[in-house]
Design a protein that fits this description.
By secondary structure, this protein is an alpha+beta fold. The protein has 26 helices and 14 strands. Helix 5 runs antiparallel to helix 17, helix 19 packs antiparallel against helix 20 and helix 22 packs across helix 23.
Length: 793
């Protein structure tokens, strides 16, 4: 028996106040520390074994005790309700883990490229990292095991065995030990003990290359000796003496009495935080009892005092990790009081009620058998020894000296069933977040809204539970990606293992899709890809129905994303590409892209373009600058420098207007600086083109002047002759015009004289007529006067 150690042998400050090089002096101290921690955990191991027995289906009563008390006839079975509840509780967490489009989302933080380039690179890295994780065969298996431990016992652990491999393993929660009083935050750990059983070939690969093994911290001789010492686990061994869950596993596997097992090397990881804050990592061989004669002979010279006590480290690396999170990823279901050892899962919540329900159901089954059986009463002692019923088909022959009792056993069967239903209600109230009870409602049918609200409160995880789980997944994926990205460094040692090959293929795929290595190394964040619905497919479908009325308001790319989400919620992620395949990975452009493209055509014709507040200045600026760059390239194809200079000037003024609206965005200072740098380049190009156009005009004017100066004498004479002829022609033309004008004036004068004569003649004739008319009138008047006088009037 290992006595409990209240003070573990960790090195402390020296008398002069200097910290030790390492808080673990040697392998013997490491063994003593781990023994003390394992011994202190035995009561927790015993209780966890009982919880595991409930999930595995252990009967509620001891079969041997029932037989000793002549009650072997009693019903003694487990109805496995605890396993059913844990399986239902596992579903939403597994859906959160694997139901999203990708496992993890990566956002690059490189300074290269534009915003669109970095977005595309981030998407490519996310897709390829997801493919890398899915290529690891142990990925899903280890995560499932971790989730099972987290749900049942309240804590699950994933570890990386060394500092180079990105692949992880799930260590059963009962093989992870910490000091009593440790809290759940891994940043506060002081000592961590992990027990593992390694296959001999796994251990051998670390020391196959002795030079490299010694360089990284392996003791090849001690490790080879541990391989020789490897043996199957046996009950009562130091490695299993306080591991009650190991015994429960043997009961479940049905090999508790006889089993055939491979030889395994029992080792312990011992991690301790140094005074510097970093974490040292040691590996020792676990003490084994029952060593055979061959192993004892081999170890006789090495261990003179106690065979099996490790005197050397198998592995030793001081200050290996910056923190414990680089070695272990912790997942706690709930951390109500913050205690590591006090963390409890679903098993603790339902254990007592599951035991009670199994006993109630067994008692009800016993009463049912009693009430449905034939009751016989022996008349004397000798007839009781002859008690047996002979059956011939449907006919039963009662033995002699026995009376059949017509009354039945009046055992109360209804009460156990009522109690069982009451316990179901209690469990539903306590664990309804994991499991919905299907009950037939009473009264009027419920509305769809009532059913929806009830499902939201009963069938899914709470938002706090979802957020808590994702907050633990984020650092886990970050550590996996950190280990993968580190393999791209030139100083990183090139290992010939499967993990390194998979990482190199990941780099090659990203490079083939146009992602620079700087974008892979420098990332802004790595986080778990969020899945809607709080782990429930029904909740996701309900959210789709509630969002559907807004579908017409979404942009085209948003509609495509919503369609993919709806298809994934109904048919799973694998069917999205079948129903809605991507077209070469391209998405439809948005309104800003279309408008900026149209504006480029407007700027080319010299028309003004207005900048509005709702425009995306970054998108517009990048498209306009790209068009200006394309126009500059067209100069090599014979484009007019004047037209290019005019377009570049218009683009520069328009982009400057956009830049004034986005300079206050503090989150995109880098993009603003890039746009300003491109504007400066455009300004320099515009000045160069303007100077070039000015020089071309000056050359054309000088050429015209030179052409006039080199005219020959013949050309001057011909020009003079031509000028004389033109002058003579002009004089003749002027003389002819003058003669024509004089003739026209003479004709005009004659016409005027004729008109005057005609007017005078007409006036004379008119006067003569008037005079004749007057004379006639006078004569007529005189005649009338004479006539009147003649008549005596």
């Amino acid at each position: 028996m290992i006595p409990p150690q209240r003070i573990i042998p960790l090195e402390t400050l020296s008398e002069s106040g200097h910290p030790p090089k390492s808080r673990i002096a040697n392998a013997s101290d490491a063994s003593q520390i781990s023994d003390a921690v394992v011994y202190a955990n035995q009561e927790r191991s015993r209780f966890n074994a009982r919880l595991r027995g409930m999930f595995d289906g252990n009967p509620p009563y001891s079969p041997s005790k029932l037989r000793s008390e002549a009650q072997a006839w009693r019903t003694n079975v487990s109805f496995l309700e605890g396993k059913a509840i844990s399986s239902a509780a596992l579903v939403p967490y597994y859906d959160l883990f694997s139901g999203a489009k990708y496992y993890a989302q990566i956002c690059t933080n490189t300074k290269e490229g534009t915003d669109e380039d970095r977005d595309r690179w981030s998407n490519v890295i996310t897709e390829e990292f997801d493919y890398l994780l899915k290529s690891y065969e142990g990925f899903d298996f280890n995560v499932q095991q971790k989730l099972t431990d987290m749900i049942r016992y309240g804590k699950g652990f994933l570890v990386w065995r060394d500092n180079s491999d990105w692949r992880f393993r799930c260590v059963p929660q009962h093989h992870v030990y910490v000091l009593d009083g440790t809290d759940c935050y891994a940043g506060n750990l002081d000592v961590l003990i992990i027990r593992e059983r390694w296959r001999v070939n796994e251990l051998w690969k670390y020391i196959e290359d002795k030079e490299f093994a010694a360089k990284v911290g392996w003791n090849a001789e001690a490790t080879a000796q541990a391989i020789i010492n490897a043996m199957p686990d046996i009950e009562g061994d130091t490695a299993t003496k306080y591991d009650f869950e190991w015994i429960q596993q043997r009961i479940k596997d049905r090999d508790i009495f006889y089993g055939v097992r491979a030889s395994m090397a029992a080792i312990r990881h011992v991690l301790v935080r140094e005074f510097s804050g970093k974490v040292s990592h040691y590996i020792i061989e676990e003490r084994r009892s029952g060593i055979g004669s061959r192993q004892a002979a081999l170890l006789k010279d090495q261990y003179s005092e106690n065979i099996g006590v490790p005197h050397e480290f198998l592995y030793e690396c001081s200050e290996k990790f910056d923190d414990f999170s680089q070695f272990i990823a912790t997942f706690f279901l709930e951390t109500s009081d913050g205690s590591w050892n006090g963390a409890q899962g679903l098993g603790h919540d339902i254990f007592s009620m599951m035991a009670l329900k199994d006993r109630i159901k067994c008692s009800a089954a016993d009463l049912m058998f009693l009430r449905t059986g034939v009751n016989l009463q022996a008349k004397n002692a000798s007839s009781a020894q002859k008690m047996s019923i002979i059956r011939f088909g449907p006919v039963n022959i009662i033995p002699p000296d026995c009376d059949v009792q017509q009354s039945t056993i009046l055992g109360d069967i209804e009460s156990p069933m009522v109690m069982d239903r009451m316990l179901d209600q209690v469990i539903t109230n306590n664990t309804g977040v994991y499991r919905q009870r299907q009950e037939r409602p009473q009264g009027n049918p419920r509305t769809a809204r009532e059913v929806s609200l009830e499902y939201q409160t009963q069938a899914v995880l709470s938002n706090s539970g979802v957020n808590r789980y994702y907050l633990r997944l984020d650092p886990f994926y970050s550590e996996v990606y950190r280990r993968v990205a580190r393999m791209a460094d030139s100083e990183y040692p090139s290992l010939d293992d499967e993990g390194t090959k998979m990482a190199k293929h990941f780099f090659a795929r990203c490079k083939a899709r146009g992602v620079p290595m700087s974008a892979i190394k420098n990332v802004l964040y790595v986080r778990a890809y969020r899945n809607a619905g709080n782990g429930s497919m029904m909740m996701r479908q309900q959210s789709i129905a509630e969002t559907l009325p807004f579908f017409g308001m979404l942009p085209e790319d948003g509609k495509q994303n919503f369609l993919n989400f709806a298809l994934a919620s109904i048919h799973g992620q694998s069917m999205c590409d079948l129903f809605n395949p991507q077209r070469n990975g391209n998405t439809l452009p948005n309104t800003d892209v279309a408008l900026a493209t149209i504006e480029n055509a407007v700027l080319k014709v010299g028309s003004p373009v207005i900048v509005t507040a709702d425009q995306n200045g970054f998108v517009h600026s990048n498209i306009h600058l790209a068009a200006a760059a394309q126009a500059a390239q067209s100069l090599t194809q014979g484009a007019s420098p004047a037209e290019v200079a005019t377009f570049i000037e218009a683009v520069g003024k328009h982009v400057t207007a956009h830049l004034q609206t986005i300079q206050g965005n503090q989150q995109r200072k880098g993009e603003v600086k890039q746009i300003e740098a491109q504007l400066k380049q455009l300004a320099g190009l515009h000045d160069k083109l303007t100077k070039q156009v000015t020089e071309m005009h000056a050359q054309e004017q000088q050429a015209q002047q030179n052409q006039q100066q080199v005219m020959t004498a013949d050309q001057l004479e011909a020009a003079t002759t031509k000028s004389d002829i033109q002058r003579k022609d002009a004089k003749v033309s002027a003389s002819m015009r003058q003669s024509a004008q004089k003739h026209a004036q003479s004709l005009m004068q004659k016409r005027q004289e004729m008109a005057m004569n005609d007017a005078a003649t007409a006036a004379k004739i008119r006067n003569d007529n008037l005079l004749a008319q007057a004379q006639i009138a006078e004569k007529t008047a005189k005649t009338e006067d004479g006539y009147r006088k003649l008549n005596g009037e």
